[in-house]
């Protein structure tokens, strides 16, 4: 059985409980779900095509060499930089990472990529500076980058 | 909504263009690309759909206002523990988180709690099914569990760095007046008290090392107009420190006759440099106080 059905059943049950407890909130939840769907589905469409392109044209050797276990510090830095620069929805990070894993990228590199993709954003930096101040933004982004780097280095001992 | 649709069209077009370019060069390869894309999409379709519902439910039932209210009420390590775990369950993107953390900051949350909050929020519990589908449960669980120590570390280290950088050691001791007569929220004073008092010893050090010090006594709506924070901001830009800020009482409005009594405070501006270096900044401080209708009742070099 497709594991997706189990999640769907869980979602349906939660929706039902939500509906019994509070109709207004459930309506709000449905509207948000619709908006998120409209936001994320086109990005996923793009990402899935990109995944297709990667699996067709990029050879395993290249990915393994740049992002594989042997790539060491350089691979992690590439992963982190791409994650920080990429304008990518969190929901699209994981499918994309999955296709890189299939091509031989190491889990440490993928951890680095996924973490910085969610936590560091060149695109969100102006917003962060406006809301939280320059010092805060600089300290947070650099510190996150550094910490993710060290965790990524030891990640393969955890996997 | 308009922007949402525009973005959607751009992404779909971008995908089609990439696929079109592939098709232009090799039809067989483009079929292969489409196959991979379809397989990945079909395999995850129901997971993606249920994730949308999870995100919707979380955003409807846990509002940012609730969270910031809760964070404002709890104190010390409890607040920190909360900030480094609970946001894991939230959805949303970086763009949505900063307005929320700004309001947390205004409510008196420390930098460490806010840094932990942002970091922990990268856990993305509603997306877990999607993450597990593409990267496996082992990776998903390890990454999610790692969030907690990472959030704590970034919170603690970040606050140390930001504090060193900002140099605003301020001590506030607010004395509470007769209860029931106080209209200004008591919580606000307590917040200031806790956040700033930690730096008392540091303030003593700066006071003894300073070459030039000026002591001020002021009267007016000090807490209501957020004067401590405004002063701290002003001073952080110059080569001097704001220390030993004490607010003696919140402004009082007596419910019986509506009479107002302004609050009183004193603080010291200290510098390691000479008098001439900070005279310009002292003028700025006087102007700030004047603009906010705060009266200076004493200004004394010590």
What would you note in describing this structure?
The complex is a heterodimer of chains A (159) and B (302). In chain A, α1 packs antiparallel against α2 and α2 (23-57) packs parallel to α5. Chain A has helices spanning 3-21, 23-57, 60-67, 72-85, 90-102, 107-119, 125-132, 134-158. Chain A folds into two domains: 1-57; 59-159, no CATH class. The mean pLDDT of chain A is 88. The longest helix of chain A has 35 residues, at 23-57. Chain A contains eight helices and no strands. Chain A has 159 residues and is mainly α. The longest helix of chain B is centred in the first third of the chain and has 35 residues, at 27-61. In chain B, β3 and β4 (260-261) form a beta hairpin. The model of chain B is unreliable at 168-191 (pLDDT under 50). In chain B, the strands form two sheets. Chain B has a four-stranded antiparallel beta sheet with strand order 2-5-1-6, with helices on both faces. A two-stranded antiparallel ribbon of chain B has the order 3-4. In chain B, α1 packs antiparallel against α2. The N and C termini of chain B lie far apart (61 Å). Chain B folds into two domains: 2-164, no CATH class; 186-301, ACT domain (Alpha-Beta Plaits, 2-Layer Sandwich). Chain B is an alpha+beta fold. Classes of the chains: A mainly alpha (159), B alpha+beta (302). At the A-B interface, α1, α2, α5, α6 and α7 of A face α1, α2, α5, α6 and α7 of B.
Rg of Cα set of chain A:
19 Å
Shape of chain A: globular
Q: Main sheet of chain B, how many strands, which sense, barrel?
A: 4 strands, antiparallel
Query: Uncertain regions of chain A: pLDDT < 50 for 5+ in a row?
Result: none
**Tally of separate helices of chain B:** 12
Separation of the first and last Cα atoms of chain A: 27 Å
Radius of gyration of chain B from the CA trace?
A: 27 Å
Tell me the β content of chain B: 5-15%
Kindly state the number of beta strands of chain A: 0
Give the helix level of chain B as a range of percent: 55-70%
Helix-strand makeup class of chain A: mainly alpha
**Structural class of the secondary elements of chain B?**
alpha+beta
In DSSP terms (H or I, runs of 4 or more residues), the helix count of chain A works out at 8
Q: What is the terminal separation of chain B in angstroms? A: 61 Å
Oligomeric description of these chains = heterodimer
H/E element order of chain A: HHHHHHHH
β-strand percent of chain A reads under 5%
Count the E strands of chain B.
Answer: 6
What can be said about the biggest beta sheet of chain A? none
């Amino acid at each position: 059985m497709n594991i997706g059905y189990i999640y769907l059943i869980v979602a349906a049950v939660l929706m039902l409980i939500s509906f019994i407890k509070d109709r207004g909130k459930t309506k709000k939840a449905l509207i948000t779900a619709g908006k998120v769907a409209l936001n994320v589905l086109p990005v996923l469409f793009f990402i899935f095509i990109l995944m297709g392109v990667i699996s067709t044209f990029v050879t395993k050797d290249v990915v393994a060499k740049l992002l594989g276990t042997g790539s060491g510090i350089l691979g992690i830095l590439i992963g982190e930089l791409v994650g920080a620069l990429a304008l990518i929805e969190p929901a699209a990070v994981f499918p994309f990472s999955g296709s890189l894993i299939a091509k031989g990228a190491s889990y440490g590199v993928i951890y680095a990529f996924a973490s910085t993709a969610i936590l560091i954003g060149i695109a969100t930096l102006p917003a962060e500076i406006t809301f939280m101040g320059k010092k805060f933004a600089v300290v947070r982004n650099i510190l996150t980058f550094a910490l993710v780097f060290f965790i990524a280095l030891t990640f393969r001992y955890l996997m | 909504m308009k922007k949402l649709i525009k973005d959607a069209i751009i992404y779909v077009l971008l995908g089609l263009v990439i696929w079109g370019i592939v098709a232009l060069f090799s039809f067989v390869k483009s079929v292969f690309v489409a196959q991979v894309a379809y397989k990945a999409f079909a395999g995850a379709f129901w997971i993606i759909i249920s994730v949308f519902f999870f995100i919707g439910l979380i955003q409807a039932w846990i509002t940012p206002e609730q969270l910031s209210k809760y964070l404002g009420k709890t104190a010390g390590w409890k607040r920190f523990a909360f900030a480094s775990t609970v946001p894991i369950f939230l959805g949303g993107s970086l763009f949505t988180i900063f307005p929320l953390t700004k309001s947390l900051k205004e409510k008196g949350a420390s930098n460490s709690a806010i840094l932990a909050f942002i970091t922990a929020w990268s856990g993305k519990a509603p997306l877990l099914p999607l993450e597990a589908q593409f990267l496996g449960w082992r990776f998903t669980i390890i990454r999610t569990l790692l969030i907690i120590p990472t959030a704590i570390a970034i919170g603690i280290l970040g606050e140390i760095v930001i504090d060193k950088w900002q140099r605003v050691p301020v001590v506030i001791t607010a004395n509470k007046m007769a209860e029931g007569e106080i209209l200004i929220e008591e919580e606000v004073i307590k917040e200031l008290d806790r956040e700033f008092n930690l730096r008392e010893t540091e303030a003593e050090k700066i006071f003894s090392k300073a070459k030039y010090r000026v002591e001020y006594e002021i009267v007016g709506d000090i807490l209501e107009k957020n004067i401590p924070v405004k002063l701290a901001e002003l001073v952080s830009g110059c080569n001097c420190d704001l220390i030993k800020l004490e607010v003696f009482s919140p402004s009082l409005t007596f419910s019986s006759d509506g009479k107002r009594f302004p609050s009183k405070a004193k603080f010291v501006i200290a510098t390691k440099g000479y008098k001439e270096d900070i005279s310009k900044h002292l003028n700025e401080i006087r102007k700030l106080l004047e603009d906010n209708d705060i009266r200076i009742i004493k200004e004394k070099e010590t």
